[in-house]
């Protein structure tokens, strides 16, 4: 059976501030510069979710996009849209970098989609900043375990 990948785009607006408790106030400023401003700032985040799988012989689809939309809207968009990312429980001890955000979105989605289907998450933070994550070796092994029992 032929396989294909579908990528769907989602959007949310959120505020954040780059800061870590592992550094002093001065070190935070040196490391993160204006992004450490206590007033915070915002982004129109764009999230790409890529799902791979067999093309169903009847529907001719990998996955109905409305099913994907329902999951991503509920798990990601509703959670982050018009929120301060620094106040999200998952960011209580983590810095709200694009790197950490793309990993968090992966972790939130991977168990909500059919096993082995999620292949990549991408996050655009600014016009010039794009982050992506395709899962860890551990998560791939876990997925294999699910597939093969
Ligand atoms: N490795 C990372 N570096 C930076 C991140 C990040 O998540 N990972 N994030 C930021 C900021 O959040 C930020 O708001 C981007 O600011 P800036 O550097 O000003 O962004 P751009 O140059 O892409 O956009 P402009 O609007 O043109 O300033 C910074 N670094
Ligand atoms: Zn920022």
TrEMBL record:
For this UniProt record, give its keywords in alphabetical order, as a comma-separated list. Lyase, Metal-binding, Zinc
Protein family (similarity comment): Belongs to the PTPS family. QueD subfamily.
Q: Which cofactor does it need?
A: Zn(2+)
Q: EC number(s) on record?
A: 4.1.2.50
Zinc is among the record's keywords? yes
Q: Which InterPro entries match?
A: 6-PTP_synth/QueD (IPR007115), 6-PTP_synth/QueD_sf (IPR038418), PTPS_Cys_AS (IPR022470)
Instruction: Provide the reaction this enzyme catalyses.
Output: 7,8-dihydroneopterin 3'-triphosphate + H2O = 6-carboxy-5,6,7,8-tetrahydropterin + triphosphate + acetaldehyde + 2 H(+)
The biological process GO terms on file are:
tetrahydrobiopterin biosynthetic process
Q: What does the record give under GO molecular function? A: 6-carboxytetrahydropterin synthase activity; 6-pyruvoyltetrahydropterin synthase activity; metal ion binding
**Pathway annotation:** Purine metabolism; 7-cyano-7-deazaguanine biosynthesis
* Name under which the protein is recorded: 6-carboxy-5,6,7,8-tetrahydropterin synthase
């Amino acid at each position: 059976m032929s396989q294909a990948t579908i990528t769907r785009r989602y959007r949310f607006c959120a505020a954040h501030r780059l800061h870590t408790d592992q550094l002093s106030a001065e070190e935070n400023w040196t490391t993160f510069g204006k992004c450490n401003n206590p007033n915070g700032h915002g982004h129109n985040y764009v999230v790409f979710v890529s799902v791979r799988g067999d093309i169903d012989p009847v529907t001719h689809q990998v996955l109905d996009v409305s099913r994907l939309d329902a999951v991503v809207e509920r798990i990601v968009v509703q959670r982050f849209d018009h929120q301060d990312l620094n106040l999200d429980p998952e960011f209580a001890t983590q810095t709200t970098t694009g790197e950490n955000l793309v990993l968090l979105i992966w972790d939130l989605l991977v168990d909500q989609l059919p096993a082995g289907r999620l292949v990549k998450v991408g996050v655009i933070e600014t016009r010039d900043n794009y982050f992506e994550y395709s899962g860890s070796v551990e998560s791939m092994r876990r997925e294999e375990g699910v597939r093969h029992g």
